[in-house]
Write a structure and sequence with these properties.
The chain is mainly beta. The chain has one domain (13-157): Beta Barrel (M1 Pyruvate Kinase, Domain 3), CATH 2.40.33.20. The protein is 11% helix and 37% strand. It contains three helices and 13 strands. The chain has helices at 56-63, 116-121, 126-129; strands at residues 4-6, 8-16, 25-27, 29-33, 37-38, 51-55, 78-81, 93-96, 100-107, 131-137, 139-142, 146-150, 158-160. It has a seven-stranded mixed barrel with strand order 2-7-6-10-9-8-12. Strands 5-4-11 form a three-stranded antiparallel β-sheet, with no helix packed on it. Strand 8 and strand 9 (100-107) form a beta hairpin. 34% of the residues are buried.
Length: 167
């Protein structure tokens, strides 16, 4: 039998912007509001893409191509590390920090106009590896907070350490 590991990671940065289509600014903390998204963020609203998330590991792929990019540069609200976001199925629930619960609603997005990052290095990871979530339970999150995959009863989910399959 394979060993198990808790499906977890941590928040590297949180970011907001007042306008769509621009890089987001890193801030100390953000308030997520139920069925709305991040307070004072341009993408918040009653729709399925309330909050965007991208793994630092994805940002590093573009850095490895020689571009100086940082969290927020892909217009993501929450940059994570240690959890493979783009492998989470739609419907996956996560706990962010102590109280916030979110549900994955979309993986990747269509890139209508190639961004500056794509033009600089011929690639952008957000359309493939970014995810979008809706807020099920609100609260405040900040850099350093833990992220756990949880089931519908808010129990922490384990993953097979070798295959990544959920248990």
């Amino acid at each position: 039998m394979g060993s198990t590991a808790i499906a977890r990671g941590r928040i590297k940065t949180v970011s907001v912007s007042r306008k769509k289509g621009v890089k987001k600014t890193n801030v100390p903390q953000v308030r997520l509001m139920i069925d709305h998204g991040i307070e004072h963020d341009a993408h918040a609203g009653k729709w399925h893409r309330q909050v965007s998330m991208l793994a630092m590991e994805s940002v590093s792929k573009i850095r490895d191509k020689g571009l100086d990019v940082n969290p927020g540069d892909f217009a993501e609200n929450i940059t994570t590390e240690g959890i493979d976001l783009c492998r989470l199925p739609i419907g996956t629930r996560m706990q962010l920090g102590d109280t916030v619960k979110v549900e994955v609603t979309q993986i990747g997005k269509e890139c209508h106009n190639r961004c500056a990052i794509f033009h600089a290095v011929g690639d952008c990871v957000m359309p493939r590896e970014g995810i979008f979530v809706r807020v099920l339970h609100g609260g405040v999150v900040r850099a350093g907070n833990s992220i756990f995959v949880v089931d519908n009863d808010d129990h922490i989910v384990e993953a097979d350490a070798q295959t990544g399959a959920w248990r």
